[in-house]
């Protein structure tokens, strides 16, 4: 039975801790900012002891999860390493999506541990919900050759699907996740606000655009990203696009700029799809560029 220590008993730490416990791993200890919050994390996980000191919690752990806020991972790791807290041959993991294990956990590796990172592509707003829906979650990992087979097994054991990322490209991967999730929310917010500007209620704007978005996601699943593109750019409807840009520029010039920048990408997709010619694409990009500044 693999023994695990969790440094950082917040939403991610609690979720992974409970998933690991259910998968048969032994949770040795959980560290949090206060002993009270550590106790709550232990209660949620269903195993382990609460601690305030990292070195004591790490103890004889085979696997150490650093699930602290991203900006203190390196400092936390360096502190444990300085106190000779990591067992030689232990696996030390962090869960930051944008930074590699080599950038944040180098001190652990110098202490004789093997390092890696594991980033689940899932929201952890509510740990109970995250646990319930975790099966099938894609988990991106990278790290030492001796660490990655164990990380892949951890991912499999907790019900995830493993994806390996190049260590020096993690920021690109994480940026892609932001575009594919967080910025979808931002764009949806823009769509709702524009509907509201025409007199449509927030409730109706949300419901109608959600219906449209669900259809788009369904199309992506069915035919892929390129073939799923529809709308005025996909049709090469220059007059409609020009009207959109002029109206948005009056309403909110920032939105005209966003429309232009995303529109240029949509033009490339439309050309790839074959719905517009290269010549029409050049005309569209020329129009879009006028409003992109």
Automatic annotation (TrEMBL):
Domain Putative oxidoreductase/dehydrogenase Rossmann-like: 3-120
Origin superkingdom: Bacteria
Pfam families for the chain: DUF2520, Rossmann-like
InterPro entries, per database record: 6-PGluconate_DH-like_C_sf, DUF2520, NAD(P)-bd_dom_sf, OxRdtase/DH_put_Rossmann_dom, TM1727-like_C_sf
Record-annotated DUF2520 domain positions: 138-263
Classification via PANTHER family: CONSERVED HYPOTHETICAL ALANINE AND LEUCINE RICH PROTEIN (PTHR40459)
Record protein name field: DUF2520 domain-containing protein
Lineage: Bacteria, Candidatus Schekmaniibacteriota
């Amino acid at each position: 039975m693999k023994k695990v220590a969790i440094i950082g008993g917040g939403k991610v730490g609690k979720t992974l801790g409970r998933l690991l416990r259910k998968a048969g791993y032994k949770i040795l200890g959980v560290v949090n900012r206060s002993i009270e919050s550590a106790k709550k994390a232990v209660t949620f996980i269903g195993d382990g002891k609460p601690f305030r000191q990292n070195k004591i919690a790490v103890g004889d752990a085979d696997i150490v999860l650093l699930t602290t806020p991203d900006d203190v991972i390196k400092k936390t790791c360096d502190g444990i390493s300085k106190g000779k807290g990591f067992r030689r041959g232990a696996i030390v993991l962090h869960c930051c999506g944008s930074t590699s294990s080599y950038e944040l956990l180098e001190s652990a590796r110098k202490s004789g541990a093997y390092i890696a990172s594991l980033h689940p592509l899932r929201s952890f707003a509510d740990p109970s919900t995250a646990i319930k829906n975790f099966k099938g979650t894609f988990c991106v990992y990278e790290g030492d050759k001796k660490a990655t087979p164990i990380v892949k097994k951890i991912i499999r054991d907790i019900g995830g699907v493993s994806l390996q990322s190049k260590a020096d490209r993690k920021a690109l991967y994480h940026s892609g996740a932001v575009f594919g999730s967080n910025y979808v929310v931002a764009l949806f917010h823009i769509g709702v606000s524009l509907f509201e500007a025409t007199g449509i209620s927030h409730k109706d704007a949300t419901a109608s655009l959600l219906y449209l978005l669900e259809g788009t996601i369904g199309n992506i699943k069915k035919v892929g990203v390129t073939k799923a593109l529809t709308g005025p750019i996909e049709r090469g409807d220059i007059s409609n696009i020009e009207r959109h840009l002029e109206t948005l520029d009056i309403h909110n010039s920032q939105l005209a700029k966003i429309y232009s920048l995303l529109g240029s990408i949509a033009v490339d997709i439309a050309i790839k799809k074959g719905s517009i010619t290269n010549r029409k694409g050049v005309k569209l990009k020329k129009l879009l560029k006028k409003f992109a500044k």
